[in-house]
Design a protein that fits this description.
The chain is mainly beta. Helix content is about 5%, strand content about 40%.
Length: about 325
């Protein structure tokens, strides 16, 4: 891996927080904060930002950063007794200087390995020992790959159970011009209706009001089509059967102090997740969950993806 091709740079971010900047040979980049193990930027080779971070995001621990890719562990949302979305997103992670080998080769990719272990305080609220390893990698075409490996390191023989999500905030031109494909006809839990179960009707998903749904048993590939930008995001995921779709719309946006009143128009969360069936690990067992994000130019044919190339292609 020659220095001219890819680079990994350590830097100071907002409020002096440590961050890592990954750069790929053709010009794409990503930024990761040690606070939260949190990806806050992903840019294509033209320097266009592909993730949404609120202009009002605080970057002040212990508040989680609003936008980018927060990691929800060991609990998604309020599905349990811990704080909303668990605590991984508001802990300081460390550089993992000697990670165990990965099954997927990252040679030639700009990447960084982070690790989170529980503090004594964490053990009081969630009494389990674990190692959470996160690799953030930038592929040669500018794809962003996140791989999480969570291992039960309990010495008392006890298993533990968790739920998980990559809470990805995508940047979109206008939410009313966006459609999501790949979730048609699936069952979902509606968080706005007390997690009641419904079946998705009709074609691709479009947005006219607040949405907060957990789609179940989803395909490994989901597409977000941004009509105005003529851009399609493709999410490929492994080990993450569920997909959360969230947009707060205007009333919730106004109620969030770290979110601009009109910013809901320019973001959409589609989150690769494991929620409905929590993961249980016995001591020594490891779980792996990965997502790969890519952004490709869209081809439209009377509003439809032409002709399902992204979802059925490689």
């Amino acid at each position: 891996m020659s220095a001219e091709r890819v680079s990994v740079e350590f830097s100071k971010g907002v409020n002096g927080l440590d961050k890592i900047i990954l750069r790929e040979t053709r010009g794409s980049s990503a930024e990761v904060y040690l606070y939260g193990g949190h990806v806050t930027s992903w840019k294509n080779e033209h320097g266009e930002e592909l993730l949404f971070v609120s202009s009002k995001a605080l970057f002040k621990p212990p508040k989680a950063i609003r936008g980018g890719i927060p990691i929800c562990f060991p609990q998604f949302s309020n599905h349990g007794l811990l704080e909303q979305h668990g605590f991984a997103r508001n802990r300081f992670w460390s550089i993992d200087s000697d990670p165990p080998p990965f099954p997927t080769n990252s040679a030639g990719k700009a990447h960084i390995d982070l690790i989170l272990r529980p503090s004594e305080e964490d053990m009081k609220i969630w009494p389990h020992s674990y190692e959470f390893r996160l690799r953030v990698a930038l592929g040669p075409g500018g794809d962003l790959l996140l791989t999480s490996r969570i291992r039960n390191t309990n010495t008392d023989g006890k298993p533990f159970t968790f739920t998980f999500a990559y809470h990805t905030y995508f940047s979109v031109s206008d939410i009313s011009e966006v459609r999501v494909e790949g979730l048609e006809t699936l069952d979902y839990l509606d968080n706005l209706q007390n997690k009641e179960r419904f079946t998705e009707q009709g074609d691709a998903i479009t947005f006219e009001t607040e949405v907060d749904k957990i789609y179940l048993s989803t395909p490994t590939k989901i597409a977000i089509l941004d009509h105005e930008k003529k851009r399609t995001f493709v999410i490929r995921k492994d080990g993450l059967p569920d997909a959360v779709v969230w947009n707060p719309w205007d009333k919730k946006a106004k109620a969030m102090a770290d979110f601009g009143d009109d910013e809901y128009k320019h973001m959409l969360c589609v989150e690769a997740a494991a929620i409905e069936k929590p993961i249980t690990l016995k001591p020594g067992e490891e779980w792996r969950g990965r997502q790969e994000l890519s952004a490709v130019p869209s081809s439209y044919c009377s509003g439809q993806l032409d002709p399902q190339r992204v979802l059925q292609g490689s």
